[in-house]
Amino acid sequence: TQAKREGCPPVRDEAPNVSSPRSYSSPDGSTPTPLRSFVWMAAMKRLAILILLACAASGCGHVAQYRTEYVTSQIRHFTPHIDGEALVVTDPAQDEKLYTRHPSSLTGMAMTFDAKVGLFLREVMVKVLSHTFRGGAKHANKLPQGTGTSRVVVKPTIVDFDYRYNQLKNLGFAVTPEAKVELQVSVSDSHGALLLEKRYESGFVSGGSYMVDFQPAEKINRAVHRALVEVTNQVTEDIEQALNQGTIGNVSAKAAEEG
């Protein structure tokens, strides 16, 4: 006979149910929410990978298009605050070059992304600078003859472009498409005097995470736009500093005077 002490619950004779530990089952036999969430996220992860593999196998990639809405949401200055006009000069060959790249990640490595990144760069530069200069911004494929009317002439060149499908960022339960760009940019005044010559890198910029997406390349497209806006924002800040202080990047006012 089990001894009973006053104020203590009776000792249970039955063995514990080791086949169904409480950490994995609820009293009514249903799976608790944390485990259901884990199982669901794991299933979504597998599905996301299968979609990437299916896209790679079926060739569902397409030539990405320039999208203004991806740019507008990332612009820092909506009120032009620098006097004058900006002129963006790009090489027509760069504008029309079709970049076809595989991601640098293992995830989605069989996929390709196709885009005229140089065309994107041209449009982004004009768009962002038009929100920076009171006189707006325009584009040309060559420098104007003689003294131009633009206060600054900006010549951007693509040095590198990369993208990846990042799973580690979300512990493997979601995919984050990311892109980065590297540019070489020179800026001169209307008389041709060099104000700025510098290399810029965006770092990897997110296009938005997802668990299931039947158009993952479009999120890469968004990431590319955002990366281009990021570097262009850096350029505009340096241009403003150069105009205000006469020194920036690899060119200083002292060096200009000596020249």
Proportion of residues in extended strands: 15-25%
N-end to C-end Cα span: 106 Å
Radius of gyration: 28 Å
Largest sheet: 6 strands, mixed
Mean pLDDT across all residues, rounded? 77
The low-confidence runs, each spanning 5 or more residues with pLDDT under 50, are 1-27, 247-259
Q: What is the general shape?
A: elongated
Oligomer: single chain
Topology as a string of helices (H) and strands (E): HEHEHEEHEEEEEHH
Give the beta-strand count.
Answer: 9
Count of helix runs: 6
Q: Helix/strand-derived class? A: alpha/beta
Percentage of residues assigned to helices: 25-40%
Description:
The chain is α/β, with parallel strands linked by helices. 33% of the residues lie in helices and 21% in strands. The protein contains six helices and nine strands, in the order H-E-H-E-H-E-E-H-E-E-E-E-E-H-H. A hairpin with a 4-residue loop joins strand 7 and strand 8. Helix 4 packs across helix 5. The longest helix has 30 residues. It starts with 32 loop residues before the first helix and ends with a helix. The N terminus and C terminus are likely disordered.
Task: Briefly characterize the structure.
This protein has six helices and nine strands, in the order H-E-H-E-H-E-E-H-E-E-E-E-E-H-H. With 259 residues, it is of the alpha/beta class. A hairpin with a 4-residue loop joins strand 7 and strand 8.
